Amino acid sequence: MNKVIGLIAGSLRKESFSKKIAKALISMAPHGFEFKIILIDNLPIYNQDFDDYNNAPESYVKFRDEIKNLAGVVFITPEHNRSVPAVLKNAIDVGSRPAGKNVWDGKPGAVFSSSPGNLSGFGANHHLRQSLVFLNVPAMQQPEVYLPHIDKVWDENGNLKDEEVRNFLQKAVGAYIEWFKKNSTS
Questions:
Q1: For labeling, which of 11, 14, 122, 137 is most exposed (least CB within 10 Å)?
Q2: DSSP string covering 155-184, please?
Q3: Contact assessment for residue 24 and residue 169, using Cβ atoms and an 8 Å cutoff
Q4: Maximal C-alpha separation, the chain
Q5: 55: helix, coil or strand?
Q6: Cβ-proximal residues to 165 (8 Å cutoff; 6+ apart), any chain
Q7: For 98-157, what is each residue's pLDDT tens digit?
Q8: Peptide bond into 78 cis (omega under 30)
């Protein structure tokens, strides 16, 4: 049975670079693993009242169950104002609540960040890592995955055309699988 690794793209935009990266990663899953895109676009903003009054939206229940059933997770994020996009932070919060029911707990993770500019989502990458420490998600340290000029690596159909980027992503996937094997409890 394959180990399922969730790919979470931290952007809602239809032509999101994070979503394109996630799609490119699907085919890079090695034997024994499956990469699955986990959608976060239908999660209402987290409100503790939902959990306090046993009235969690169905989308929360489905999302939490999906994350519980993953063996690991790769977060793919752009940068918004030197931090993670609100939609990604919301998904993290939804999965970490209610208190004591953190569905992220212990799942080996990785952070891939990108931007059209030179900084490659550095601020978002590191802010996300701060949250992952609290959630007990061991995050792959090397290689660090920062993808600059991400707007220039796709063809007109949204497929990855840049072989250097493809090779780097394949190397990062290989490193993540090794990281997963060393840190997985499943």
A1: 14
A2: -TTS-B--HHHHHHHHHHHHHHHHHHHHH-
A3: yes
A4: 51
A5: coil
A6: 147, 153
A7: 999 999 999 999 999 999 988 889 999 999 999 999 999 999 999 999 999 999 999 999
A8: no
